[in-house]
Amino acid sequence: MRQQRLHSFIAFGQENRGKRHSLSAFFLGWYQRSRINRHLKTLGLALLFLAPWKITPSPAEICLYITDESQNRLLVLEPESFQPAAIVPVGDGPRAIAFSPDGSRIYVANAVSRTISAIDTRNFSHGRDLPSGRDPRDLVVSPNGAHLYVTNGSSDAVSIIDVATPAKRVEVPVGNAPRNLAITPDGRFLFVVVPLDNIVTVVDTAAAAVVRRLNVPGGPSDIEVSPEGTTAYVVHASQVSEIDVADQTLGRSLRVASSPRRVAVSPDGLLLYVLTGSSLQVIDTSLFAIGTTTPLKASRALAVSPNNRRVYVAQASDLYVFDEIGRPVAPQVTLGKLISDVAVANVERGCNPAPVSTCPGDCSGDRQVDINEIITAVRIALDDEILLACRAADTDRDGHVSIDELVAAVRAALTGCPR
Predict the structure, then answer these.
(1) CA torsion angle for 398, 399, 402, 407 (degrees, to 10)?
(2) pTM to 2 decimals?
């Protein structure tokens, strides 16, 4: 019966190969919803690589988050139009982003101020800052939302922070200048990459103690755990390797492009994304083989949307958007001067872009223009600030702020907004 189904599937693909979007939609729906054998899904994925695919827009409740290190802020964007829902000031040197399991909180690691910013997603307000160790690099949240786990590059440790009582902080030494980390879905283990020591350190979260140090040659740079919690994927040297979570031993390795930096797993666990110094590579986790390679300049951050339809790559000040098999689906977007991290998540509030004021230079939308908003408009005109910081300054919506638009903003500051 299984063989007959396979032949039928191949025949369907051959018969309909010239039908563009209907075929692509069939393959995508079958691939995401089917419960049949993984190897048949792999075949479906292979045929999907060959067919043009019309992307279905992401749901409105998904938000895109960008940490802009140059301006110490978090950009909250609608992921299709890239219009801002909020721009939230955070601590100095914002790096990694993490979410509470219920989506009510966003946490941002601030390397320079040595804090963790806690942001309420209901109104995108910045609440209290939680203390961290020196140079926080990456962070994850426990599955029950009670604890934060933060790598501290300058104190060679992972901080375990009790969210309810942040003063109750435990430091676990893990190695020299730890970087990224991942947590198992049951919250039992942390996997921490320590590139200078060429190891991945495994931490038992209940005991707050190191239980294993795995030798990983070539300086591991990032790690992710599969959704089912059985496998961790670590990128190092020019390889991506599997780690068996139960045995805490290295498994299969696959050669990838040079200088792999980030790794991410699709929500269904079937695809692996590796961001290297020159490309984005998509890997089938069952066959452990590369499906596509998309050339890219050196990039810093990588994220996959919860609905498995978008892959986001941040490169310095620009953002690139791909479909699930690594094909570009939107022009590059300039969002900040120095993007540190990018993340995507469902949030309680939704991600509706804030309306743009009709008053020239009214960045906040309160029908008043103050000196700080004038300064912001001038900085946009000089290309020292992104347009998202004050879309009201661009009254003709041409993507630039001109001298005439600056004059209109100053007039609004002196005489009031036009009625």
Answers:
(1) 90
(2) 0.79
